[in-house]
């Protein structure tokens, strides 16, 4: 069963909302600059994708909230004129895996910040966070979709927030040889961002008379046992399983997928994994070699990736430049979670 998406919100280095972010990515615009207080272990400057509207001295939980709350407010704006009985919602937020530079109480801080931001505006049934890394945002989407299907809520705000731009995190990435520098061409550009989508039931849409922007068609979660930063060899088994599960209901409609958006970031592990997975599932894909890689524009946005990919898919459909209505969005966490979704726009 399709679940409707009626609201979008984004904050990235290339846009202050969903529309500007999607337009920048479509145009191939990147906003990379040198990190102000760090070089790599060989003295080379380090590129980052920093939001220009946030002061660089904002760190920790405050920066997560400065990214997330405005994006969430954008996404829930379609409910602004709805009656009080139609404005209650669940909030599900993806956050990064534990790493140096993150506040120990990040999850609690985000929950408290969102409680304060939404106090008095509408009824919030619950706020839950998932510290699962790159896959966290789509895992929130999967759970929000299921809550609506199960009749537990009529509306669910899902999203993800992340940023790498603290000295401790940057130093940790450098030690792990994950930073893109002159000395390491196989790393990534650390970025920051937030993406949120408002999911609703079909009867709520009818009551508030708000048009659907797109739909969540299916979701799937699997686990990869051969992880990055280990001596094992990843053959894409986890990602393949997730893709097959998400597309299994459409076995009679192959090939179904018109567009692919993924979290390739320059690391060989991710490229090799995706290559294996797409080779094994190519019968579902109309153009498996045509992949959208938005991290070329906004850097690696970690837990915010999945919801931002959903936004790109929906905006492409709304503006008429998508190759077709069905987009496969793919995310993978360093801890092994592989979460994928099919979005119709």
How would you portray this structure in words?
With 345 residues, this protein is an alpha/beta fold. The chain has two domains: 3-208, Thiolase/Chalcone synthase (Peroxisomal Thiolase, Chain A, domain 1), CATH 3.40.47.10; 214-344, Peroxisomal Thiolase, Chain A, domain 1. The protein is 33% helix and 24% strand. It contains ten helices and eleven strands. It has helices at 18-27, 60-76, 106-118, 136-149, 167-175, 202-208, 237-247, 268-280, 295-298, 305-319; strands spanning 3-12, 33-39, 45-48, 89-95, 124-131, 155-163, 192-200, 214-223, 259-261, 326-332, 337-344. The strands form two sheets. It has a nine-stranded mixed beta sheet with strand order 5-4-6-7-1-8-11-10-9, with helices on both faces. Helix 1 (18-27) crosses helix 10 (305-319). It is globular, with a radius of gyration of 19 Å. The mean pLDDT is 94.
What secondary-structure arrangement, pairings included, does this model have?
Elements: E1 3-12, H1 18-27, E2 33-39, E3 45-48, H2 60-76, E4 89-95, H3 106-118, E5 124-131, H4 136-149, E6 155-163, H5 167-175, E7 192-200, H6 202-208, E8 214-223, H7 237-247, E9 259-261, H8 268-280, H9 295-298, H10 305-319, E10 326-332, E11 337-344
Helix pairs in contact: 1-10, 2-3, 7-8
């Amino acid at each position: 069963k399709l679940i409707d998406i009626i609201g979008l919100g984004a904050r990235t280095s290339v846009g202050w909302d969903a529309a500007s972010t999607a337009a920048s990515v479509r145009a191939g615009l990147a906003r990379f600059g040198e990190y102000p207080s760090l070089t790599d272990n060989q003295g080379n400057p380090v590129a980052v994708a920093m939001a220009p509207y946030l002061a660089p001295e904002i760190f920790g939980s405050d920066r997560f909230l400065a990214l997330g709350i405005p994006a969430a407010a954008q996404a829930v704006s379609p409910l602004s004129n709805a009656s009080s009985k139609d404005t209650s919602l669940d909030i599900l937020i993806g956050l990064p895996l534990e790493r140096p530079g993150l506040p120990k109480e990040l999850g609690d801080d985000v929950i408290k910040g969102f409680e304060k931001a939404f106090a008095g505006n509408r009824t919030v049934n619950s706020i839950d966070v998932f510290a699962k890394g790159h896959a966290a945002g789509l895992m929130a989407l999967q759970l929000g979709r299921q809550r609506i299907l199960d009749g537990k809520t009529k509306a669910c705000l899902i999203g993800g927030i992340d940023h790498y731009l603290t000295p401790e995190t940057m130093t940790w990435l450098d030690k792990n040889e994950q930073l893109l520098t002159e000395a390491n061409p196989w790393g990534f550009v650390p970025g920051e961002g937030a993406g949120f989508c408002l999911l609703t039931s079909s009867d709520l849409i009818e009551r508030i008379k708000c048009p659907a922007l797109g739909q969540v068609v299916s979701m799937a979660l699997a686990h990869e046992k051969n992880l990055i930063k280990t001596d094992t060899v990843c053959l894409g088994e986890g990602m393949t399983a997730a893709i097959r599960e998400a597309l299994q209901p459409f076995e009679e409609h192959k090939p179904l997928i018109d567009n692919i958006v993924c979290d390739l970031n320059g690391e060989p592990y991710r490229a090799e994994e995706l290559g294996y997975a797409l080779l094994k599932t190519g019968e579902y894909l109309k153009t498996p070699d045509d992949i959208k890689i938005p991290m070329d524009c906004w850097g690696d946005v970690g837990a915010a990736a999945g919801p931002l990919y959903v936004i790109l898919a929906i905006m492409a459909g709304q503006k008429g430049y998508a190759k077709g209505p069905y987009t496969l969005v793919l995310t993978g966490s360093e801890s092994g979670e592989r979460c994928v979704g099919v979005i119709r726009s």
